[in-house]
Amino acid sequence: MTDDQIPPAGPDAGEPNAGGEAPPEMHSASQGREWLAQLQQMIDQVASHAGPVARDVAAKAAELAAVAGEKAGPLAKRAAEKTEEVGARVADRSRRFADEIRHHAEEDASAANAGAPGPADAAAAAPHDDDIAGA
Questions:
Q1: Which among 26, 69, 105, 109 could bridge 22 via Cys, Cβ 3.0 to 4.6 Å?
Q2: In this predicted model, what pLDDT tens digit does every residue of 76-95 receive, in sequence order?
Q3: Whole-model pTM?
Q4: Helix (H, G, I), strand (E, B), or coil: what is residue 13?
C-alpha cells in the first residue's frame, strides 16, 4: 500500500477544507468575534447618545431641587414660627401646672399642721423631765 491510497483522518485545525471554507470551530469563533465587535459598537453608540440625555436629565433634576428648596424655605420658616408659638404655650401651661401643684402641696401641708399640735403645743404636751423623775 502506498500513502496515496489512505485518506487523511480529518482536516487540520488551521487548514481550509476541500471546499475552501474554514472548519466549523474556526467559523463559529470568528462569527462570535464579529458579533462581539458589533455589540461593542452598539454599546459605544448608545453611550455616546446617552451622555447628552443624561446631562439633560441631571440639569432638570437640579432645577427641580432648586424650586423645591425655594418653596420649602418659607414653609420651614412658618413651621418654625408655629413650633415657637406652641412651645411657648406648652411652657406657660407647664409653669402654671407646676405652680398649682406647689400651691396644693402647701395647702395640704398647712391643713395637716392645723390638726396636729404646733411647736408651742408640742412643748406643752411633751412630758417634762420633772414629771418623769417624780414618777
A1: 26
A2: 999 999 999 999 999 999 99
A3: 0.35
A4: coil
